[in-house]
Design brief:
There is one protein chain. By secondary structure, the protein is of the alpha/beta class. It has one domain (3-38, 74-88, 159-380): Alpha-Beta Barrel (TIM Barrel). It has helices at 3-11, 28-35, 44-56, 58-79, 131-135, 137-150, 163-172, 191-199, 201-218, 246-266, 283-289, 306-312, 327-330, 333-347, 367-380, and strands at residues 83-84, 96-99, 102-107, 112-119, 124-130, 177-180, 229-233, 237-238, 241-242, 270-274, 294-296, 317-322, 353-357. The strands form three sheets. A seven-stranded parallel beta sheet has the order 1-6-7-10-11-12-13. A four-stranded antiparallel beta sheet has the order 2-3-4-5. Strand 8 and strand 9 form a beta hairpin. It is globular.
């Protein structure tokens, strides 16, 4: 059975030969230790390195991007992941280098700016300051107006937009399911945006409408580029629960997500929604009423138990299994092996399950623990009688 057949069997709730395995991110340090050579595969470091290469020159960026594609493809092949995809990258060129670790981005159309900083210890490259943080709703309004104006020039995607993904897939070899991020729908989880939900809900709706229209423009074209799965969603919860009320979810997210999942299904695509946190208060709306096919980044440490999810939502495909925040980081290889066995026992019957960590193989995880998880997954994930 090919990797693609394995994935498609699982999402159709049939039992393949074994449970599919996939990680959306493996940090560069762990990949390097596994492969025995320097690798550029994931984590905040690749976003900072790619940004630094863009700042240096077009040639430096092209060289970096080429090596990243090779490394990601090699890792997928070596670990035999069943999905091919690109890691989270930073796509824009900075307007200013503030220091070795810090870059500033300008958006002339919106008259806004953002500062990103890389922290080596946490391996995070993220926003540390911005117009929106400083100005709040005023900067959000300019951002939304610029997005709406840019829509006048929007065109459907072309093959060039997926060239890097296909290069990764070719480097990985075999026939693997291809994922893409179209259909990502989220209210940015920042204070200013959450305040806007109360003060200017019309502005938040306009922002989400632009994002929805972008998805609806792209999705019908994706099958001709070989895309199988929309690996999308959008963070909307913390350990304590959703970051906005169920009523706000039903107002802002649900009707637009329903439009996106309908378009995905009409195109023959699978839509998997990813979010950390405790989503139980909105689970029926998010996992049933929305029309999503799958749920990932399942936050076990926030109370999202996979066995309970499989029992309550039997039509969903679940992606995850082992906590990357607690278990993979702090427990022993022997304990990880046993937890993997338990997860497989609970989740593999009847298909509908893709095994992986609860989010990403990050900098804090010992390489031996990740290796133990993969070894156990291949041992305990075999079906007695697999079928395509």
């Amino acid at each position: 059975m090919t990797s693609k057949q394995r994935i498609m069997s699982a999402v159709r709730h049939r039992e393949p030969d074994r449970v599919p395995i996939y990680e959306q991110t493996v940090c560069s340090r762990i990949a390097s230790e596994l492969m025995g050579r320097p690798m550029r595969t994931g984590g905040g470091r690749i976003r900072w390195e790619e940004t630094a290469a863009r700042w240096e020159s077009e040639q430096a960026w092209q060289e970096y991007a080429g090596r990243l594609i090779e490394d990601v493809g090699d890792l997928i092949r070596e670990l035999d992941f069943d999905i091919a995809g690109l890691p989270w990258r930073h796509a824009r060129k900075p307007s200013e280098k503030l220091d070795e670790w810090t870059f500033r981005y300008e958006d002339p159309a919106a008259k806004t700016w953002t500062v990103y900083h890389y922290d080596e210890v946490s391996d995070v490259f993220d926003v540390v300051d911005s117009s929106i943080r400083r100005e709040g709703v005023a900067a959000i309004e300019r951002t939304v107006e610029a997005m709406e104006k840019a829509e006048e020039h929007r065109k459907p995607p072309t093959a060039d937009d997926y060239a890097a993904l296909h290069q990764v897939a070719r480097r990985a070899g075999g026939e693997r399911a291809l994922k893409s991020g179209e259909g990502f729908l989220v209210i940015p989880p920042e204070t200013a945006w959450l305040e806007a939900c109360m003060e200017r809900p019309d502005l938040v709706e306009r922002y989400l409408d632009v994002e929805t229209r972008a998805a609806l423009t792209a999705i019908p074209h994706l099958p001709k580029f070989g895309i199988d799965i929309l690996w999308a969603g959008g963070d909307l919860a913390s350990t304590d629960g959703p970051i906005y009320s169920p009523a706000m979810f039903r107002r802002f997210i649900l009707p637009r997500l329903q439009q996106i999942t309908r378009a995905a299904h009409e195109a023959g695509l699978v839509y998997l929604f990813r979010t950390d946190g405790n989503i139980w208060p909105i689970a029926e709306d998010l996992l049933v009423a929305s029309g999503v096919d799958g749920y990932g980044e399942i936050d076990i440490d926030a109370g999202m138990d996979l066995a309970e999810l499989k029992q309550k939502f039997p039509r969903l495909t679940l992606w995850g299994g082992i906590s990357c925040g607690r278990v993979l980081t702090f427990e022993s290889p022997e304990a990880i092996r046993e937890k993997t066995r338990q997860v497989m026992e609970a989740c593999k019957p009847g298909g509908g399950f893709i095994f992986g960590s609860s989010n990403a193989i990050h900098e804090g995880i010992p390489t031996r623990n990740f290796a133990a998880m993969l070894e156990a997954a291949r041992e305990f994930g075999v079906y007695e009688t697999g079928r395509p």
